[in-house]
Specification:
eight-stranded parallel beta sheet, alpha/beta, single chain, TIM Barrel, 10 strands
Length: 333
């Protein structure tokens, strides 16, 4: 998938999911658009899925991933499973059990539970970041798992991943020297993707509010390829895309971006029709003045179906934005 995206100058929407319903929305969108894609789970999603009394991020994530494998059998597209933003202090209790779960499946002759994991050590100095990234890349490579790493700070906040108000401006932009250091540290060990920062911000913003500098990616890639050749072009990841201009999003595709995280926009797309349903059917969803309401209206399926459809529509738009529509390699790989 990564090779196809690089060759074709498109990227995959990476959709954060937290439930069966959001998984179904993602699969529907990818299948409708004939686009391969990525589904990912954060530590928060894993805690949510494991139950209110448990909050076991690794266990809940395994539940979601196993469900995704079963659901995927219904569709003729490729979908990779990823974990999103795992900080170093959580890695041993989150990433290691998930890597072990993949190893256990492989020992039975089954497909990987996960194809990709993200270790977000961007809060550490680059040397320390690379040291722990190398440790986890070695574990991943043993099981044919790609590791996503990040250097620099993505502004804003998303499910526990956050910059701070006092983050120096230079930390918001990955330098060409940083990109070279990441490549030299990790390339010998296995396949990795790199979330370089170029002014991107987690969260939701009006169009034009986020000021990206895609040229940072171009310059960084050039430094790496000038030293190691065209084959050294890195697989880059775009975090915090909400509010970005479409022309800038597509410009990043020319500089090696093969994955863009889509979370904030799909959260709103999911919630909006639920709010609309409640406001328009207040007398049906509530038992007011001794009445009994309307079971067909307060049945959760009545509004969750609308949420699933609207989330799928937003993911379909992301496929169009990232030029992945109609480019599935299902049956070819």
């Amino acid at each position: 998938m990564l090779d196809a995206a690089q060759k074709g100058s498109y990227a995959y929407p990476a959709i954060n999911c937290t439930s069966i319903i959001t998984l179904n929305a993602a699969f529907k969108a990818f299948a409708d658009m004939k686009s391969d894609g990525i589904i990912q789970f954060s530590t928060g999603a894993g805690q949510f899925a494991s139950g209110l009394n448990n909050k076991d991020a690794a266990y809940g994530t395994i539940v979601l991933a196993e469900a995704a494998h079963l659901l995927a059998e219904q569709y003729n597209v490729l979908v990779a499973l990823n974990t999103d933003h795992c900080q170093p202090e959580k890695a041993s209790s989150f990433l290691k059990p998930l890597i072990e779960a993949t190893a256990a499946r492989r020992a039975k002759g089954l497909n990987n539970l996960f194809q990709n994991h993200m270790l977000d050590a961007s809060n550490l100095p680059l040397e320390e970041n690379m040291a722990i990234s190398k440790e986890y890349l070695q574990l991943c490579a043993e099981n044919e798992i790609v590791l996503e790493v990040e250097a620099g700070v993505v502004g804003g906040e998303e499910d526990g991943a956050a910059g701070t108000e006092d983050t120096p401006e230079e930390k918001l932009y990955t330098t060409p020297e940083d990109m070279l250091a990441v490549y030299e540290s990790l390339h010998p060990l296995g396949r990795f993707t790199f979330a370089a920062t170029f002014g991107n911000v987690h969260g939701h913003y009006k169009p034009g509010a986020v000021k990206l500098r895609p040229d940072i990616l171009k310059k960084g890639q050039k430094v790496v390829m000038d030293k190691f050749g065209a084959g050294a072009e890195m697989d880059l990841v775009f975090h915090g895309g909400s509010g970005s201009d479409l022309d800038q999003i597509r410009e990043t595709l020319d500089y090696g971006v093969v994955k863009m995280n889509v979370d904030t926009d799909t959260q709103y797309a999911f919630t909006r029709p639920i709010a609309d349903h409640m406001l328009k059917n207040y007398d049906g969803v509530m038992m007011i003045d001794g009445e009994i309401g309307n079971k067909k209206i307060y049945d959760p399926r009545s509004y969750l179906k609308k949420a699933e459809e609207n989330m799928a529509a937003r993911i379909a738009r992301a496929c169009e934005d990232l030029l992945s529509t109609g480019k599935t390699i299902y049956g070819q790989a």
